[in-house]
Amino acid sequence: MHQLNWRFSVRVLLPVAMSTAVALALAALALVWAVRQSDEISIQRQQRMAERSIRAVLGELAKQQEMVAVWNDTVLNLNKKPLDEKWLHANIGGWLHVTFDQDRTYILDPNDQAIDAVIDGTRMPPEEFEKVRASFHELIRGLRGDARSSHHGHSDRFSHAEYLKSGRAVHDTHLLELLGRPSAVSAMKIVPENEELIQKPGSEFLLLSVRFLDGNFLNQLAEQNLIEGLRFSQVNEPGEGEIGVPLRSDEGKLIGYFIWKPELPGTTILRTFGPSIAVVCLLIIGVMALLARSLRRSMGKLRKVIAELRESEAQAHHLAFHDVLTGLPNRAMFDQSLDRTLASAGPQGRLAILMLDLDRFKHVNDTLGHQAGDAVVREFGQRLALLLRGSDTIARLGGDEFAIVLSGINGHEDVERVCVRILEAVRQPFEIAGKQAFVGVSIGVALAPDAGLERVDLMRKADIALYQAKSEGRDAYRIFTAAMDETVKVRSTIEEELRLALVTGSDLRLFYQPQVDVDGQSIIGLEALVRWHHPTRGMIAPHQFIAIAEETGLISSLGEWVLRQACLASKRWPDLTIAVNLSPVQFRSSGLAEQLIGIVREAGADPRRIEFEITESLLLDDSDLSRCALKTLRQEGFKIALDDFGTGYSSLSYLRRFEVDKIKIDRSFVQHLGQQDESMAIVTAIVTLCRAMGLTVTAEGVETEDQKRFLSQTGCSEMQGFLFSHALPEEQIEDLLISLRDRLGSQGNATLASYASGGRRVAALT
């Protein structure tokens, strides 16, 4: 044991201790170096900012002068006799001081005699210039075209001299000592701004500007560049923590020093966090000691842990590629297995991919609970395993979705036999906690190599076939064909084009089918029916694009568009009720009622003239969301009609629970009136039932006089069908109503001029 501890100390603890010590030492050196580098970079940055500011003030002086020196008005006013001193002060000297903080300005005549002087914004006698003439001597000579005096060369960072011609401006700028103060000075010829005014060469006036660098300029420089304690001194005597940078004139003469306290971020950080860093280092050493002690104790457990890891590795691998609920392979393993099967089968090998989806599985979850749903999924997987060969692959992809790979098949017949056995097995009841659950299964099949040889493509096509099986009634199987793929592409194209049509609204139109009174004499309402006239496909049947809209989520946008158009029609024909169909899909939105109410209010339509038609499937869903939405709509004044009554499974309890206002008898019962006693009995029973409940009854699909007569005798409230009118566009409806009113006018108002029913005024048909 002692030998083991010694080896552990030599091989583990000693290298760890040495590595820690070296790492801490290197970290300390790196920290000191980083602090110094950071401070040096900060000092250099502040020096560069000061340099740029000094250089910038020279250029700014010239630009400021150019605003008044290159100006026809200045030239004209300077040549006036007598001189307009107020104008000069307001537009030159005084203006430059107020606008740009120029400390001094002087104007010299062509003979270099001062005619105007402004000091600190106050106009002074021109003779004040004589006190500084010597300092401006070199600038004036250079600007007048004399031989320019040479500037003594020097390398100091603040030295600067410039002689510039840009456009019509001619100026010279210098950095010099003026009246014992560091100054930026600029001299510029006063010239016209264009050729309209002639200025004789040599007769120009001169504008001289001065900006002292030890006054307000220092405050601006410190504020703009965040320089602490910036000051100017004649001698280089920086205080503690300060630095001094020399300032020299263009002749190289030392003017003084800019002194400030530089920002030292590295030192600041070190002072702030130094104690904390020391504590952290001590903590690291302590933690390393504790870790070493813990590591020694862990050595004994290491072999045991390794053994346990090896034991659980197989289990983890199994869980990574198998479904926990059923024990079947999951999607990852299914993909790998299918890839291997396709590779081994080759281009000529035949195999089938089956995609399965349980039907009515949601109903099991909703009625018996999710535990019952899990039990159904588990038993379904077991039934599949009993039906298939050991060489076939079964996988649960997720939820109630399964996939199967059948290899070594001879043709469609083998696959169809398997599908039939699966359908028969699923139709047997599932015993769940003493209760029976019934589900179905839809199967989509893709055959290789007929449908392709790539896994992704085969699974996509099997999904298409599965969708086909579900859309054709469920509880069936379908084998993929090229026509299915084309159907999917067409549906996708229709979806994109419908989305575009909803944006533009140009290809969509509303048609209106009249609803008439019991005698068939008067139009009392219109049902709004959307039509899509595609620019290339022609008229697309409503059941085609509406189904796509419901599947893709476009039904909400389509419903909004229809309602907005119907509101406009309601305002156009205020005496008629406009019926608008609502899809059950729309009721899945929690804010449907508020959305519909908002559209009607925005359009300014009367809710009492809008009727919403729903289907029996919405009642069968019996959700609180739908019931609440319908209640809100009725409270707002809208009427609710139950469309296609008799085709579903709605009962009296549903009618009472949802409180509809109208029942519309489906055309499938109306079309057999006079031919089948059963249809006549059903219609009579529906009308009697609705009248007993105080509901309005509308019969759809009335096409013959016999049907009309029977419905009238039975007590039907309203009728709708081709006997009275097909669905017509808005302009034809308007023509129809106008012609009816004209006919009534010619016959007088004694009989059909108006018809009162619940306060509604309607137009007569005959």
UniProtKB/TrEMBL annotation:
Coiled coil feature spans: none
Record has Transmembrane helix as a keyword: yes
Domain EAL, residue spans: 491-741
Domain GGDEF: 349-482
InterPro entries to which the protein is assigned, alphabetical: Biofilm_reg_signaling (IPR052155), CHASE4 (IPR007892), EAL_dom (IPR001633), EAL_sf (IPR035919), GGDEF_dom (IPR000160), Nucleotide_cyclase (IPR029787), Rev_trsase/Diguanyl_cyclase (IPR043128)
Keyword Iron in record: no
CDD domains named in the record: EAL, GGDEF
Transmembrane intervals: 12-35, 273-292
GO molecular function: catalytic activity
Alphabetical keyword list: Membrane, Transmembrane, Transmembrane helix
Top-level taxonomic group: Bacteria
Name the UniProt record assigns to this protein: Diguanylate cyclase (GGDEF) domain-containing protein
